[in-house]
# Entry
Amino acid sequence: MAINWFKYSSPSTFYGAAGKMVPWFAWSAAILFVVGLYIGFFVAPTDIQQSEAYRIMFIHVPASILSMFIYLVMAGYAALGLIFNTRLSSMMASALAPTGALLAFLSLWTGALWGKPMWGAWWVWDARLTSELILLFLYLGFIALHASIDDPRRADRASALLAIIGSVNVPIIYFSVQWWNTLHQGASVKFTGTSMHVAMQQGMYTMMMAVWLYAIAVSLLRVRCIILERECKAQWVSELAEVKR
Amino acid sequence: MNWGEFFAMNGYAWYIWGSYGMALLIFIIEIVMVRHRRALILQQLHLMRNAEDDMT
# Structure
């Protein structure tokens, strides 16, 4: 079956498709948040070493992983925009950046609140924490660079370059706990298996799915705004029901 | 387990609720900002449309 993918890369087609997808992602995210928090707070047992403090994990790990994953997706879209000159790809990259930045901030915030009772410090300049802080700055740099150039297509190209170069930081964050001596604990979830209690895992994966679906929903909402802003002079925009009334 | 004990989180209440509170705040702020952005661009598009109608 041949699907013409470039059909969906047209902003006018995607605007409507994204609008139809948003409720599905948003509602499944909401349901998974409820289920994940229920497992995290009422099913998962108290940790022997960390007592209740470990429950920060259920938001800290999903926020951290998604902040890295979204960066790679953003850089991927930016690269597509650069290579194929597809406007929608660049718009998707711009739509993902604020969500990624907020999740990177949330990762640092929840990490600080977890670090204080466990390590005795809100912040240490170790490899994991510092590289995650750099990730936040890369997101902010991407947003600022894009905003500072008036011509949107030139802004797309310049910020795409920043996004692509910055993506080397993602594996650095991921492997930092192996490459350097860090205060941050190593990965509890590995490709070879895990050392965690089953309910803790279930809670964490459910929350991860919830944050993922939330990020998709809110990015689709944002890309719809970006499409309208950048296509404001197009005929199809003036014919939209929400513009006409 | 009673609710007072639950919210006390064995002494880690500030750290745990501070984390989840910030998460909630961030999600709410993000949704409000996106909705505001949409309202703003739609308003602008209305103005552009009305201006065009006046010209014709």
